[in-house]
Amino acid sequence: MSKRVIVLAIATATWMAWLIILGYQEAFSHLISNWQIALTMLFGSMIAGGTSIGGGAVAFPVFTKLLHISPHEAKVFSLAIQSVGMSAASLAICLTGIRVEWRVIRWGSLGGLFGIFLGLGYLAPVLPPDVLKMSFTIMLTSFAITLFTLNQNMRQCHLFMPFWQFQEQGILFLAGFFGGIMSGLVGNGIDIVVFSVMVLLWRISEKVATPTSVILMAINAIAGFILQIFVFKDFTEIVQSYWLAAIPIVVVGAPLGAMFCSLLQREVIANILIVLIIIEMITSIVLIPLRPLVLYSSLISLILFSCLNYWMYRGTMYMKQGIGK
Description:
By secondary structure, the chain is mainly α. It has helices at residues 3-22, 24-33, 35-50, 56-66, 71-95, 102-123, 129-150, 166-186, 190-201, 206-231, 237-262, 266-287, 292-314.
């Protein structure tokens, strides 16, 4: 089966279920009344399916400033819609045989389940949204600088985990746990956290790390979505309306993004990711009021993540000659 047929089959099946469950009138009523959400997610879902940063670089500034959606509702919507879009992208990745590292997915997901429960249930209610968002942006920026520096050298890349022992499993569990917390706080995070460990520490190619991170985010988003509905009762009627409007869009955009990414060279994938992080940084600086608490937390985040990324960047244990780019 060709990639186009697979994407079309996934989209068609979802559209039919969307129309049958809601009914023709209600389905298109949600779509028409929330067309701005659907249009935003057309671009956001392609970025989410094709990169490890998620669609927040597009969706967050549009939702919070142009559409005047609260940061909390934007986060709830993010997890809800990623449970559909990223799952569609993951299905396309699996059906088309795109290379992923399943051991990373298993152990990262295990840590992510604990992390997202902690983030959603205990940390998100007490931490200021602007502090969380800016700290997340600083984490991304630090990673982008390190990735850019790393790619200035003609580095050799692994296409799979170079070692697989208790140490690697422990690192993955912790990365998944922290990434899950970030997902619970800002709507995504496990994808970029595990991606950074795979690329910076283990020197795995971006062509493998990206689809691996997409599947990780899909699993984490499904877990978060279930928690929001049944445990924390946070899936409000208005967010549900946004979600229903975006479903038929993201099941096309996210798989297309994943297919497009699979055609690119790893250097191009890295450069696209860096550009998206720059956009994320600029929009956050422009849109988020830089009050003292935001500045202090950003400085702490910059120091912490810069030290961590530098440690991974300087590590030589997982460097190996003779692995193809």
